[in-house]
Amino acid sequence: MMDFQAIKQTARQARRYVLQMNHRAGKGHTGADLSEVDIICTLFMGVMDRGAERPDQDRFILSKGHGAGGLYCSAAAMGLIDPAILDQFMGDDTLLAGHPVRQKLPDLVEINSGGLGHGLPIGVGLALGNKLSGMGHRRAFVLLGDGELAEGSNWEAAMSASKFKLDNLVAIVDRNRLQLAGKTEDIMPLEPLADKWLAFGFEVLECDGHDPEAIANAVNQPSTGKPRVILANTEKGHGISFMANVPAWHHSVPNDEQLALGLAELEED
């Protein structure tokens, strides 16, 4: 049985690390980091099977590579990396680059991401490769930003996933409805988003992207023989009242006062 309370507490610790790390570095995508950590912690702690040796294991791709900080801090909170190396974030020749680099952290990072629209095509390749090599029971999980869906390569990948009936592919959209300096629906409208994925042959589910139980339930629904996309409704800057749903926090970092306020909020129940 999954311990959803433990996942929630781990995600909360990841949020503390995000604030501290970005404040120390003076860089980072704080809002984007905070919207994704519940999804990442749920996948790693309660969903994916990573016990076997590669390639016979579930794989995770962070396609929204600008959310690297959220991945690093979630990994630190889960004990997958030493929290002390968070001090290196975005330094010179660091393990923790501003976008994930596989050569630096090969046990955590599947691909070098940051050029948006690349993660889903690679996830399709992983899922298809698993099918062809007799490992169709292994799933490829791809976390996408919603603003990223303006990239046409995602939809080319979606057509391929549908053609090859990749029911071992799970795309998760971090649907926080903000990108860059505004709303997705103002910058490049996505709605009706569910209908678009349906038209491309996907099974479409929606969930609360900050509720580990809802995320796990959506991911683990019985297969319908189709690739699956989960529209995870999230909030950019989630967990910090003055950051939540504020476009400016896409690429802002907390100052000393904001750090103290944010950490205090994360101590509250």
UniProtKB/TrEMBL annotation:
SUPFAM superfamilies from the entry?
Thiamin diphosphate-binding fold (THDP-binding)
Per the database record, which ranges form the Transketolase N-terminal domain?
10-253
Family under the similarity heading:
Belongs to the transketolase family.
Keywords, sorted A to Z: Thiamine pyrophosphate
Name of the protein in question:
Transketolase, N-terminal subunit
UniProt superkingdom: Bacteria
A Pfam family of this chain: Transketolase_N
What the entry lists under CDD domains is as follows:
TPP_TK
**Which co-factor is required?**
thiamine diphosphate
